[in-house]
Every structure is written in structure tokens, then in C-alpha cells.
Specification:
The protein is of the alpha+beta class. It folds into two domains: 2-90; 109-346, Bira Bifunctional Protein, Domain 2 (BirA Bifunctional Protein, domain 2, 2-Layer Sandwich), CATH 3.30.930.10. The protein has helices at 2-18, 22-33, 38-44, 53-91, 109-123, 137-140, 173-188, 232-247, 300-305, 322-330, 343-346; strands at 127-128, 134-136, 165-167, 196-205, 217-227, 253-260, 263-272, 289-298, 314-321. The strands form two sheets. The protein has a seven-stranded mixed beta sheet, sandwiched between helices. A two-stranded antiparallel ribbon has the order 2-3. The mean pLDDT is 92. The structure holds 3,4-dihydroxyphenylalanine. The site of 3,4-dihydroxyphenylalanine has 11 residues, from β8 and β9.
Length: 349
């Protein structure tokens, strides 16, 4: 009987070893340990043993049972592990698979050039002032030496919101705010005025009909410097530096006398044609130079109106049209393209 038990054990263990899945393990458990299993069948015959034999065989039978149980459970957990891994393998989702590439936009040409100009001025010690697009007419006109009923107001067809509030027609309005704020700060701190060196880029509005060179909304960059002893030479040097950084070291500028109510003297600033370098071509209409901005020495009345003594301080100011610079830079001939948001156009910059 003992031999029979050992045989069952050997057989069971060898079958357990070759089992391929947990289902087979269960079948083997029933086959060897179940109610009608082989081990039970043997144990049923224990009654025929002698009293001395019984405990010895009993012990062997228990040892065989527990060996088979251990073998079953070991193999079962091994197979379970394998089955789990196989399932994971089967259900694996490759999240690294390439997806849809999102379209990443890029800066608008107006922003590219505006940023470039800002960088150039930051390099010359200027800071950037933010103005507001909705403005009092006092700041857009009156304090810039354009009193009510001044004929020059008519040159800037204006969108009025109320009688006294409008969409600014020029960034020059920021000049007045900056000067007033600096004067107030100096007063509050009981000190003399600190030098002012700012630029202010932003949108301006005029009731213009849309065509290739006009739009009711466009962009300007205003500049203002106020200090003791500021001269027209500083203005020219600053603008020449700007143009040389934008268009190359051989770029020259030319100042032509002009009139702006808020500057005296005033000038229109032309830049040497980048195409013909001053000799005259179709781009500059044979002029050799292209008009780019307005500038001048801040009018004493404007300084005074902001609480700055024109006998002690002087300053220069300028206002340039961003669209004009962008169009020259990229050879764009129709301004409307800058606002139409046609991706085929914008992609080129
Ligand atoms: N604001 C003027 C315009 O829109 C441009 C301008 C001219 C600005 C002379 C200035 C300046 O600061 O000094 O036409």
C-alpha cells in the first residue's frame, strides 16, 4: 500500500509538472485528491490494514496528500502568473503610437517686426509703456496742442464714442500720460523729474475706407525722450540706429521739414530705399528714399501742459507706422493681407 501511495505521488507530480493551464490543474486535483480520486480510493482500503500498519500508512498518506497539494498550488500560481502576463500582452495598448500632430501657429508678421523694434529700443535703454485704445479727446488732441476746432483734427477722421471719448487716432496720446505720471511721481517723491525714455506700440483707429494702403485699424509705435539737453541730434541718432538695426549698417535716413502740432521743429523721416540704396527705382518711385515716420522736438506747450518746464527740459518724439515697415520688410503690396487671417499668406513669415 505504501508503494501504491508513492506511485500515486510520482504520477501526480509528473502530471502536475506537464500541466499547461489552470484548468488542467483543477482536473488533476479532482483526479488525485477528489472524492473519487486515486488517493481517496486507496485510503478507503485502510480498513483492511492491521492496527500497527494503519498509523504508519496514515502518515505516509498524509505526506503524499500534502506533497501533491503543494505541487498543485505551486504549479497553479506559476500558471496563473503566466496566464495573467499573456492577457496583459494580448490587451496591451501602445500609447506611444504616433497621434495626430497638432498645428502649431506662429507669430503674425506685425508681431514679429513689433517685437524686433521693441528689442532694439530696449537695447538703447527705453522701456515699453502701455496706452489705452479708448481715450479722452483731451489726450488724443487737446494736450497735444490740437485744441478743439483746430483744423488739423480733421486730418485724422475720428471714431467718437461720446463727445469727449474716442478711439485713439494716434499713439501720441501715450506721451501725455507718461509725462503727467512722471511729473506726479517726481512731485510725490519730492525730487526732480527723471529722464523719460519710452516707446509705446499699439493699435490706432481712423475712419478710413479700406484699400491697399489704408485700414480703419492700424498700428503705430510711439517714442518719447525727455531730459535736460536733449537735441535734434539725439533724435536723428536714435532713429538712424533703429533703421540700421532693421535694414543694415549702410542704411541712411533723411529728415524733411514738416508740421505736427505737438512738435517744433517737426520732421518727416525718410529712410534710404533698401532696393536701390538711394539711386532711385520703382520701389521708391525714383525718390531714392521712402517716407517712414513723423518726428520732432516735443513742443514747449505740450511739455508745459504736462507740468514740465521747457526752459529746463527738452525732448524728442516720433511715431512710426508699423504696417508700413512690415510691408517694406516683406515686400507686401496690399495692407489688407495683414488682417485677413488667410493662413496661406501668414504661413510665409
Ligand atoms: N502721431 C503722428 C501721426 O499719427 C505721428 C507722429 C509725428 C508722432 C510726430 C510723433 C511725432 O510723436 O513727434 O501721424
Amino acid at each position: 500500500m505504501k508503494e501504491k501511495l508513492e506511485q500515486i505521488k510520482t504520477l501526480a507530480i509528473s502530471e502536475i509538472c506537464t500541466a499547461e493551464n489552470t484548468k488542467q490543474i483543477e482536473e488533476l486535483r479532482v483526479k488525485f485528491l477528489g472524492k473519487k480520486g486515486e488517493l481517496t480510493n486507496i485510503l478507503k482500503q485502510m480498513g483492511s490494514l492491521t492496527a500497527e500498519e494503519r498509523p504508519i500508512i496514515g502518515q505516509v498518506a498524509n505526506a503524499v496528500r500534502s506533497d501533491i497539494e503543494n505541487a498543485l498550488s505551486e504549479k497553479k500560481s506559476l500558471l496563473e502568473e503566466n496566464e495573467k502576463n499573456a492577457q496583459i500582452e494580448k490587451e496591451y495598448i501602445d500609447i506611444t503610437m504616433s497621434g495626430k500632430k497638432p498645428n502649431i501657429g506662429h507669430l503674425h508678421p506685425l508681431t514679429i517686426v513689433s517685437d524686433e523694434i521693441k528689442e532694439i529700443f530696449l537695447g538703447m535703454g527705453f522701456s515699453v509703456s502701455q496706452g489705452s485704445e479708448v481715450e479722452f479727446d483731451e489726450y488724443n488732441f487737446t494736450k497735444l496742442n490740437l485744441p478743439e476746432n483746430h483744423p488739423a483734427r480733421d486730418t485724422q477722421d475720428t471714431f467718437y464714442i461720446t463727445e469727449k471719448i474716442l478711439l485713439r487716432t494716434q499713439t501720441s496720446s501715450v506721451q501725455v500720460h507718461v509725462m503727467e505720471e512722471e511729473v506726479a511721481k517726481a512731485k510725490a517723491e519730492n525730487r526732480e523729474l527723471s529722464p523719460i525714455r519710452i516707446i509705446s506700440p499699439g493699435r490706432v483707429y481712423r475712419s478710413d475706407a479700406v484699400d491697399a494702403t489704408h485700414s480703419p485699424l492700424f498700428h503705430q509705435i510711439e517714442g518719447l525722450v525727455v531730459d535736460k539737453g536733449v537735441t535734434m541730434a539725439d533724435l536723428k541718432g536714435t532713429l538712424e540706429t533703429l533703421m540700421q538695426k532693421l535694414y543694415g549698417a549702410d542704411c541712411k535716413i533723411r529728415l524733411r521739414p514738416h508740421h505736427f502740432p505737438f512738435t517744433e521743429p517737426s520732421a518727416e523721416v525718410d529712410v534710404m530705399c533698401f532696393k536701390c540704396k538711394g539711386t532711385g527705382c520703382s520701389m521708391c518711385k525714383q525718390e531714392g528714399y521712402i517716407e517712414l515716420l513723423g518726428a520732432g522736438m516735443v513742443h514747449p506747450k505740450v511739455l508745459q501742459g504736462c507740468g514740465i518746464d521747457p526752459e529746463i527740459y527738452s525732448g524728442f518724439a516720433f511715431g512710426l507706422g508699423l504696417e508700413r515697415i512690415v510691408m517694406r520688410r516683406y515686400g507686401i503690396t496690399d495692407m489688407r493681407l495683414l488682417y485677413e487671417n488667410d493662413v496661406r499668406f501668414l504661413k510665409q513669415f
